[in-house]
Amino acid sequence: MKNILSMLLLSSLIFAACSKGAQLEDNGKIRFMFEPGKLQFISSSFNPDRQTMSALYGNREGLSLLEEPTNNQGQVSLKLVTYKMQEDPQYFGSKVNGELLRVEAVKSGKDGKLQYTTEYGEIPPHDSITQRIADILDTDPLKFPQ
Amino acid sequence: MKYVKQIRLIPTTLLCIVTGFIVLQFFNGTVEQKPVTGHMRNVPRQVELILERSCFNCHSNEQQLSFVDKIAPVSWIVNKDIKRAREVMNFSEWDKLSDAEQKGKFYAIYNMINVGKMPLPSYALTHPGSKLSPVDVATIKQYALSLSAKDSFIPAHHGPEQVKETSPTNTPVSPNGIRYNADFKNWKVIGMSTLIDNTVRVIYGNDIAVRAIEEESFHPWPDGSAVAKAVFKQTRKPNGDIVPGDFVNMQYMVKDGKTYTDTEGWGFAKFNGQELKPTGKTALFAQQSCISCHRQLAEPTGYLFNVPPKVNSKKLIEHYLKTVTK
Asked: Chain B within 8 Å of A130 (Cβ-Cβ)?
């Protein structure tokens, strides 16, 4: 009897542990929210042709540069986070950001010039670094009622 | 002898039941009669017929109730359902909705019938004629998609920002007491979305909501969770990107299980346009226009849409996070 109880208890614990694990990840897949650190969210975009959805983050200097392109002062830091665009599983007609594709960064170098790097993923095919920087700098920050 | 006594009780019992049934009819209410102010316009007749057959008996002012529906106690349930259905969507007062609201409602209709939440299974069981066939569902879907196709994008702004920003003098407050909270700009972006009503949406979550997502602990969401959704019109750029244009509204969901008992613990608020005009005349607006869809379609994620989907490889994300934190 004691053995049976012990086995039941052990089984319950294993089942509970598995259930918890299954909630946090499904087949090695997890939910992802980009952690911008000290950067602020600036704007979003999506591209129906490429089926991507992007979020641009930046520091104060980066925001100033977007608002006034001649205002390239201080240490600019901008990050463009691009996801696959996918159907919203809960609502027909809605599309949401899905799998993370790439994280691109534009930062001021030591010489003050802007430098481009990819922190995650790869630069889109047929795009040049110059084009990528131009696209990132061509972002209008969101406008909210004041 | 024992059985004879029991048999003698049968007529008495039946008499009591019949008397009780008759008495109930004195407390029988009727459906409130309301006028038809305006139907959907420019809708294919095929779509109209489906809606009339499956939806109008509850979601309109034009009920065609059966004899059984009018008898108490069934009538009590029917009347309650009709009252609630009219609050959520009323096809006889369709003209009271703006174009955007009409389109939004129609997407909601398709989403509800697509997952079999409408007509209510209990209603369909007693009213077999209201059941929708796969062809009916496809017809509704086709019409919903056609609404999107009629739209055109707003051209991108060129030169200086053309949107005139006005400053609301006081912090706007929703009828249920939820205040417009500009602090959402400091919250984490938990997702982005676009809807075929041609809007772009950015969804922010406060620390409590973000932690709940990270820990997969949103059944239920902890009190204090708050989510803000900023809605913009779409603007197309020359490179094909579609970006947020003019501001449309801010929507909030605030979790307080003790306060918002009628809406699954969530308080809803919406502030529209540059003036941030609150939606709703009374605190009941959330019961009338918000919770219905959230309850039926977003139950798996604690009645909140836009929880990030589980689509990212844990291995790749962990590798990325290690490289950026070096």
From this structure: no
Q: Write the DSSP string, B131-170.
A: PPPHHHHHHHHHHHHHHHHT--PEEPP-SS--PPP---SS
Q: Which of B163, B169, B193, B318 to mutate to test the interface with A (most CBs of A within 10 A)?
A: B193
Orientation of helix B134-149 relative to helix B45-54, angle to 10°:
130
- B73 inside 8 A of chain A by CB: no
Q: What is the DSSP string of A15-64?
A: HHHHHHHHHH-BTTEE------TT-EEEEEEEETTTTEEEEEEE-HHHHH
Is A9 inside any structural domain? no
Identify which of B221, B276, B286 has the alpha carbon closest to the alpha carbon of residue A144: B276
Q: Report pLDDT digits (tens) over A92-142.
A: 889 999 999 999 999 998 888 999 999 999 998 889 999 999 999 999 999
Using the structure block, give the residue that is written with the tokens 């159907």: A87
Tell me, yes or no, whether A109 lies in a domain: yes
Q: How many domains does chain B have?
A: 2
- Using DSSP's 3-state secondary structure scheme, residue B199 falls into strand
Check whether the bond before B134 is cis (ω within 30° of 0): no
* CATH number of the domain where residue B245 is located: 3.50.70.20
Q: Is residue A47 part of a domain?
A: yes
Q: Are residues B110 and B191 in the same domain?
A: no
pLDDT, one tens digit per residue, over B85-120 is 888 889 999 998 887 778 888 888 988 998 888 998
CA distance B224 to chain A (A): 20
Task: Count Cβ atoms within 10 A of the Cβ of residue A130 and give its class: 0-12 exposed, 13-18 middle, 19 or more buried.
Answer: exposed
Cα of B290 to nearest chain A Cα, Å: 14
Q: Give, in degrees to the nearest 5, the angle at Cα B17 between B11 and B18.
A: 90
Instruction: Indicate the residue type of B42.
Output: N
Name the one residue in this structure whose structure tokens are 């208890």: A9
Residue A82 lies in a domain: yes
Q: Is residue B3 part of a domain?
A: no
pLDDT at A85: 96
- The one-character DSSP state at B179 is B
